[in-house]
Amino acid sequence: MTAVTPLTMTERAANPAAAAEDRPIGFGRLQRKEDPRFIRGKGHYLDDVTLPGMLHGAMLRSPYAHARLISVDTSAALAHPGVHAVITGKDLEGLNLAWAPTLSADVMAILATDKVRFQGQEVAFVVADDRYAARDALELIDVEYDVLPPVVDARRALEPDAPVIRDDLEGRTDNHIFDWEAGDRAATDEVFARADVVVSQDMVYPRVHPAPMETCGAVADYDAVDGKLTLYETTQAPHAHRTLYALVAGIPEHKIRVVAPDIGGGFGNKVGIYPGYVCAVVGSIVTGRPVKWVEDRSENLMSTSFARDYLMHGEIAATRDGRILAVRTNVLADHGAFNATAQPTKYPAGFFHIFTGSYDLEAAHCTVTGVYTNKAPGGVAYACSFRVTEAVYLVERMVDVLAAELEMDPAELRLRNFIRPEQFPYANATGWEYDSGEYETAMRKALDMAGYDELRHEQAQARERGELMGIGIAFFTETVGAGPRKHMDIVGLGMGDGAELRVHPTGKAVVRLSVQTQGQGHETTFAQIVAEELGIPPEDIEVVHGDTDQTPFGLGTYGSRSTPVSGAAVSLVSRKVREKAKLIAGAMLEARPEDLEWEKGRWFVKGDPEQSKTVAEIAMAAHGTVALPEGVEGSLEAQITYDPPNLTFPFGAYICVVDIDPGTGVVKVRRFIAVDDCGTRINPMIIEGQIHGGLADGVGMALMEMIAFDEEGNCLGGSFMDYLIPTAMEVPDWETGHTVTPSPHHPIGAKGVGESATVGSPPAIVNAVVDALQPFGLRHVDMPCTPARVWAAMQGRPEPPV
Amino acid sequence: MSAEHLHDLTLTVNGVPHPVSVPARRLLSDALRHDIGLTGTHVGCEHGVCGCCTVLLDGQPVRSCLMFAVSARGHEITTVEGLAGPGGELNAVQRAFQECHGLQCGFCTPGFLMTVTALLAENPSPTEDEVVEGISGNLCRCTGYQNIVASVHRAAALMTDGAGEPRP
Question: Is some CB atom of chain B closer than 8 A to the CB atom of A267?
Fold first, then answer.
């Protein structure tokens, strides 16, 4: 177990990353390979793509949440001198492209044909000389709507008189999508029946939006002569997209090249295929020229994949002395107008059944009901994906509600109920097998870093003075790295990842990935994995990704899966190369391979370390004239497709200190202590950076962010003036620490970290807010804890946000 | 609809004159990115909140998405491409962001670099509060701001050491 202490301001001002001379050849702090281009403005993002003769698209969107489409008159738009084409739903019907499959076995409209089902839904697509002309032409399209009553409140979606949103689906008479359950209902009911203490709480995880700084877009370039489509896209999953385009659009897969350039943040927002991408493709086919489409910020916030929107009822059962026995929950999940959530097929509520948290429970049970509403579809990710965020929020809030009921310290209650180290691998009550954990160690470290006892003492004094100081704790366990193909697929595609590694004759290397960075630093991290395994310096390893013509198949980057899945693939493909190098080294040294020993970067003869060959020497020999052993080909390369045996289970202990202004309800996050355990740490600098970002996400969700709607279904979060995300003013100086508990089933023991902080921080912050409001007798306050909502809670009106 | 009237003007960007012919409504951000080809200036919201499109106008930070190209006539514009020296050597702010891991996806980065370059030119040794307030008009979704704050302090230190000039 290793640890770092929180850095002081002075230390932070120094360079945390190793400079070139003392850089690690493998794991360690290393400046990123991506940065030289980014800091010079030489990144290459989607909107930087310019092709000869390129035209520009713009999307006409519905102003109504629910309306029947009577007519779409495009004649005036077509007469605009700059316009080359106007595409409507009717046009797409002729191509069998008006509707497309979603990632959840539903269908979604590419362009509306019958009705519009959410405000901002795509109605028509204009292709023009430039973006200005395209937007002018949108104003010239005359659409007649017959406005229908919308379903805005998910709680009313299943009422008998609710308007049926999806009357496009044959036989559909209600807004029900699915019922799903996990765990053992009877066993859980039995535990609840005999428990000393049962507490329950309704809570809302509001609809929020990933809002990456770069919006979504595409440049489609269809070459009619050779029938090849080159599609530049803001996508986190280029290979999955290519396969889906082939299946849906009928373009042969080998004639589709999807290129993801530099991506300006994803957070799950760039997993799905959006109508704008498809329209850009159709626009290119129709006009015979490349077509660029880039959405604006309002389009991004109003129409692309949201996250959360879970209305949860939690119950927790315990003994009077604080032994947690069981957790039970019912969830109403608002999926918007199309069920487009990106989840493994078997799990319509994603991995929500990790709501058993970090505790050794006797039983647990959940039911999740998904409903349609007249809101934007999606429901993917936004760290974390697969509903882990909702699950962790539920259980960590419930533990605090229980602590309040038992009048027990929330840290003590958690420590008393953790799964113990010797219980791993731990089979939880809903079917997961947690790989490894040292929960108490992480928790105690966080308490030490926070100075927990002193904080409680300070709080007692503050309360005497009438000050509202709160201390919130959350302990999370995630399930990431999807996933084993026997359990997990997305629209039928197994969730493994390929990797290819080639060592060139001079010992430099290229590794090709199936995953797609959106800022996580893959070019650095994956080079470090190869460096660790082969001893080739990271700067001598080119990392290729984001181009389906250049990389092996795999499902992309979301759900913190890059390191758990592709990280494993890259370490194993490196080991394959190392084993081949051993055979060639044996031939070079005239030694039997079994007499050779590996030291990072070279094979040497056991007992005679001077007799050795470096990887570079072996690479040259492989491509040269050395007589190779039987069956060994003259190259130094390998490929692999990795099927993870299990998911990985990162965890962490978070402590948040807030101060609430009793006069205004403004919540100030004063301190935030985050102890994370993501197993083996490849680049601690990158890990800490990702944790910082996730913690700021948590501040946003807990205190500021919400995509709200009015009664007519108008989106109230359609700009950055309405949808507030944290600035530097709202975040504290993050205090990070870590423990290291490697995953036993991962080749290098790494677990993934990209979403940990986004998962763990909201409950810590809300627990702190509720703790601060203890003098008001409150047990729960829903997110977002805006000044107005906190103020209302202080006045005895802790209303849910929806 | 008749074709738009075009205005011929010269935009001086990073010391280089660029003749452009643009309609009156063309945003400065679009002119820089698409007419002149300097795509380092990014567009994140087009309503003046996110700060990705920040450039310097006569040394002062402005949102190029809230300004028309024609309004920039006669001013010295500096973009991220103009921060490095003639030999490509990074300015102190660029160096600091790289050293302190002050960026991840890189999309907001040019806006921060411009804002901070102007901030330090005006206040070479800002306090913690001044740094936080100074960058509060730029949004970042990746870093949680901590390493950006550290980068600003680092840049100030580099400049004080004479290791970097507050260019421009």
Answer: yes
